[in-house]
Amino acid sequence: MLPPILNALNDSVSHVRIAVLEALRALVEQGGVVQEVLPSILDTLQDSDWSVRRATLQVLPALVEQCGAVQRLLTPVLNALQDSAWNVRSLARVVLRTLAERGGAVQEMLPPILNALEDSDTFVRIAVLEALRALVEQGGVVQEMLPPILNALEDSDSAVRIGALQALRALVEQGGAVQEMLPPILGALKDSASVVRSAALQSLPALVEQGFAVQEMLPLLLNACKDSTSVVRIDALQSLPALVEHGLAVQETLPLLLNALKDSVSAVRIAALQSLPALVEQGLAAQQMLSLLLNALKDRASTVRKAAIQILEKVPTELFIDHYWETKDRGCIAILVPRLYEVALTVEDTEELCQQELVLRSTKGDVVEAWDKTKEEVERFKQLIRSTPPYFRQ
Question: Counting runs of H as helices and runs of E as strands, what totals does the chain give?
Fold first, then answer.
């Protein structure tokens, strides 16, 4: 049966050749005829029709699964990165990463991959860096990788420099030589391209995990929070919880957060708000977080107000009650009303509940707070309910 199928790879109609490749892939995935079909499949990477070449690439991961012929497949895939058709090149990039993830033979794959890192085509260099990162993530930390990756940080294309930073971060996470990688990563924080500065910021938590002094991060974060590009400021704020978790003092981060909450870009203010719950877990006063969130309900941007509400929904009810008794902040009432009653309250309902000693909060079944039943308190509460926006009462 196999010879007629392989002969059909030479059919004059490209759709027939593609159908044959799909059939061969099914055979390979079932664990059969790998060695017999491998040469014929690789030949179709030279087909004149781009759709056939693409269909060939789709077969290669299955071949690796069944026979592990990484070395034999690697060079054809690297060549496919320079194919004239963009959709073949894009798939070759995915297949190369798949080979790195599944191949396992790091020493075999490394020489041709490192050679391809010198290619004049930007697309090829980016794909190769992705493959190197995949090799590292599979546990294949090899010292020979470092010099070419460091050289890629000097590349004229920002996308290549980002790929190099991501590969370096993988090396750091796998326990690579931090001291050798530290200067170039920190140097990338001053890169002319904002996307590269962002990628460098994303490496900071990994450096701290591997022993870099967390206190030395603070000046870097201060600079990043003042960056001219909002994306960099956002990435700096998003890195705060991880750095605090590894020893950066919460109180030292507060000036960064307070400034960020006044940022002219709403997305930066949202990033600052979203970092608050994680910082509370690391020691930020819950009441301080609540004050910042309630203040954000007055923000001029609806997206910021919505972000604040989404975080407030997760705040325990007793925290709102404590905050109300301390501050008499009406923002607490707006949140508490739907939580406590779960139905729309009329003024009469409110008065009746208050007169029945409505319990606001219990801890382990013990009543720890109740409304004062005096007429003065009833009237005050009725006024607060009246001042609550209707959509909070529904």
Answer: 24, 2
> Scanning the structure block, which residue is given the tokens 């320079």?
82
What are 64's two structure tokens? 């690796």
End-to-end CA gap in the chain: 71
CA dihedral 37, 38, 39, 44 (to 10 degrees): 90
Q: Tell me the whole-structure pTM to 2 decimals.
A: 0.69
Distance of CA 313 to the CA centre of its chain: 23
Q: Which residues of the chain are under the pLDDT cut of 70?
A: 1, 31-35, 66-71, 103-108, 139-142, 176-178, 212-214, 320-321, 324-325, 328-394
Q: Tokens 């997305």 appear where?
A: 267
* Cα separation, 164 vs 130, whole angstroms: 9
Dihedral-angle region of residue 316 (phi above 0 means left; psi in -120 to 50 means alpha; beta otherwise)? beta
In terms of Cβ atoms closer than 10 Å to its own Cβ (0-12, 13-18, 19+), residue 129 is: buried
Phi and psi (nearest 5°) for 13?
-100, 125
| CA pair distance 210, 120, nearest whole angstrom | 34
Tokens standing for residue 357: 């000693």
CB distance 195 to 231 below 8 Å: yes
**Burial (Cβ within 10 Å: 0-12, 13-18, ≥19) of residue 228:** exposed
